[in-house]
Specification:
A hairpin with an 8-residue loop joins β5 and β6. The chain is globular. The strands form six sheets. The protein has a five-stranded mixed sheet, with no helix packed on it. It has 386 residues and is mainly beta. It has three helices and 25 strands. The longest helix has 35 residues.
Length: 386
């Protein structure tokens, strides 16, 4: 691969000929914004599916569509430019729509991949603005949100949820820094905990969230829609039902078909397994890692110490998240503090980005004219010498 991989997913690519056999493949999104399909059959070269211009892919998923019966499948791709792109699959050159609403980069994205769960064409995304949002990717609408979670401060060791300022949830504008300040602004002596991994259950009835800097995961039930319509009646706020403690920072997570949750953590545990309790309503989970066959097999397979990262959200030498776009503020440049890097960056539709692109195009055309002029002068001098 030309660039380091950032996300991956397994899928089946339909055959272009009638009655053909599907091709099993691995989809990979890299740091240059490209999505590549690698066939599991030897001898078949990788295929470029699509690219997010000047961005970084943070998640991808092949899902079924309840609306487009002709093509049947869609490819969801999220990036650092606050959006989720919905493309047809495998005709990925056809873009259907974008899911917009996040203020900062999308750190993680998940959806129900094996068909549509009970008519629910839903996906979930976590962002650097601290929100976790639930979407209907067939109607292109946001239908739910998980409240922002604030990290404990030095004054208060308790993790708390930020209450919504209106009836439609909470976003980064509720903090003093507002949008664009993101992860490093204090909010009532707390800091926003960025979701680094989100997961949607196979039946799309629960969301699990792991956040940077917090050694636990949260389970958020999704209200059941009415039998007449598979859609939620209105925008809903998804509060947590249970917090499951982990001995170290959760790095990744995933749902199993039986409704249990696997969590990748740092050594020496590596893998945690949470299953629904045998008694009760089924909304409570318990840690079965000591007796889990999956955890035991992994521990037995690892015969040497593996050094796991502290977090899957990389930071630069200044402590800023790499996914968060960086720019120098004009005031800092005038004051001579050019070494001070500020967060925020440019929005993907920001006018400043368009101006920068226009100026780059003007410079390219100027160089092209100068090269043409220089070439013409050289040819004239050659003819004169002859």
């Amino acid at each position: 691969m030309p660039k380091r991989a950032r996300c991956l997913a397994f899928c089946n690519i339909p055959s272009s000929s009638p009655g053909g056999v599907e091709c099993h493949a691995v989809l990979v999104g890299d740091l240059s914004g490209d999505s590549l399909a690698f066939s599991l059959v030897q001898g078949i070269p990788p295929r470029l599916l699509l690219g997010h211009t000047a961005s970084v892919l943070t998640g991808l998923k092949v899902v079924a569509s309840t609306v487009d019966k002709l093509r049947g499948k869609l490819l969801l791709t999220s990036d650092r430019d606050e959006k989720i792109r919905i493309s047809c699959f495998p005709e990925t050159h056809i873009t259907k729509e974008y899911l917009l609403g996040h203020d900062l980069f999308i750190s993680s994205m998940d959806a129900v991949s094996k068909g549509v769960a009970d008519g629910k064409a839903w996906c979930v995304s976590g962002s650097g603005d601290g929100t976790v949002r639930l979407w209907d990717y067939d109607s292109f609408k946001q239908i739910g949100m998980v409240p922002i979670v604030l990290k404990p401060s030095e004054k208060n060791d308790d993790v708390k949820e930020a209450e919504p300022s209106d009836g439609k949830g909470i976003d980064s504008h509720d903090c003093d820094g507002g949008a664009g300040e993101g992860t490093e602004e204090d909010c009532d002596d707390h800091r926003i905990a960025v979701p680094l991994a989100v997961g949607l259950s196979p039946h799309a009835d629960r969301i699990v969230v792991a956040r940077d800097g917090i050694n636990s995961i949260d389970i958020h039930p999704i209200p059941s829609p009415s039998t007449a319509s598979p859609l939620l009646p209105s925008f809903v706020l998804l509060h947590k039902r249970q917090t499951l403690d982990c001995k170290s920072q959760p790095l990744a997570l995933g749902w199993l078909p039986d409704g249990s949750v696997l969590v990748l953590v740092r050594d020496p545990e590596f893998l945690l397994h949470f299953k629904p309790c045998c008694s009760g309503s089924g909304d409570e989970y318990e840690n079965v890692s000591p007796t889990s066959a999956l955890c035991t097999a992994l521990r037995n397979a690892v015969d040497r110490r593996i050094s796991m990262p502290e977090s899957t959200l990389e930071r630069d030498s200044y402590g800023k998240l790499v996914l968060q776009k960086i720019r120098l503020l004009e005031d800092d440049e005038q004051d001579g503090n050019s070494n001070e890097r500020k967060g925020g960056g440019l929005h993907w539709q920001d006018a400043g980005r368009k101006v920068t692109a226009k100026m780059a195009e003007q410079r390219r055309r100027k160089r092209k004219r100068e090269q043409a002029k220089g070439k013409g002068t050289a040819e004239e001098a050659k003819k004169a010498s002859e």
